[in-house]
């Protein structure tokens, strides 16, 4: 009877171990798939004409590149500052989405700049020119 219980226990622990390894493996796969910046097969649409035109404009407009050290880490964070054509205290901060860069926000930067705002466009940590991981 004792050997029979021991065999059952070993069998159950083996099944549990295999399931646990499968769960860990699947978790790592989906983490890599969703959160590690890289080309994604399901995002194959390319850039729109609006984004391409905005990026071309952003290359020609007068802007300053600002850098800052991240709090609590030795990482360089980078932002573009596009001053308004006429001096103003009105400033807009635009934020890009996950796995994008400040250049992707060029149409919005242009829109606010044309409306008379100063615009600050940072690259989030781990994106674009900013250092770090996310």
Automatic annotation (TrEMBL):
<keyword id="KW-0472">Membrane</keyword>
<feature type="transmembrane region" description="Helical">
    <location>
        <begin position="7"/>
        <end position="31"/>
    </location>
</feature>
<dbReference type="InterPro" id="IPR029058">
    <property type="entry name" value="AB_hydrolase_fold"/>
</dbReference>
<dbReference type="InterPro" id="IPR022742">
    <property type="entry name" value="Hydrolase_4"/>
</dbReference>
<protein>
    <submittedName>
        <fullName>Alpha/beta hydrolase</fullName>
    </submittedName>
</protein>
<keyword id="KW-1133">Transmembrane helix</keyword>
<dbReference type="Pfam" id="PF12146">
    <property type="entry name" value="Hydrolase_4"/>
</dbReference>
<feature type="domain" description="Serine aminopeptidase S33">
    <location>
        <begin position="88"/>
        <end position="132"/>
    </location>
</feature>
<keyword id="KW-0812">Transmembrane</keyword>
<keyword id="KW-0378">Hydrolase</keyword>
<dbReference type="GO" id="GO:0016787">
    <property type="term" value="F:hydrolase activity"/>
</dbReference>
């Amino acid at each position: 009877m004792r050997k029979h219980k021991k065999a059952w226990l070993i069998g159950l622990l083996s099944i549990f171990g295999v399931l646990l390894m499968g769960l860990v493996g699947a978790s790592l796969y989906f983490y890599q798939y969703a959160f590690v910046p890289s080309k994604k097969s399901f995002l194959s649409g390319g850039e729109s004409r609006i984004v391409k035109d905005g990026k071309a404009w952003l290359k020609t407009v007068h802007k300053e590149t600002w850098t800052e050290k991240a709090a609590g880490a030795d990482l360089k964070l980078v932002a573009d500052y596009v001053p308004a054509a006429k001096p103003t205290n009105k400033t807009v901060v635009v934020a890009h989405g996950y796995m994008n860069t400040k250049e992707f926000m060029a149409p919005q930067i242009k829109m606010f700049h044309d409306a008379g705002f100063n615009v600050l466009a940072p690259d989030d940590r781990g994106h674009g020119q900013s250092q770090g991981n996310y």
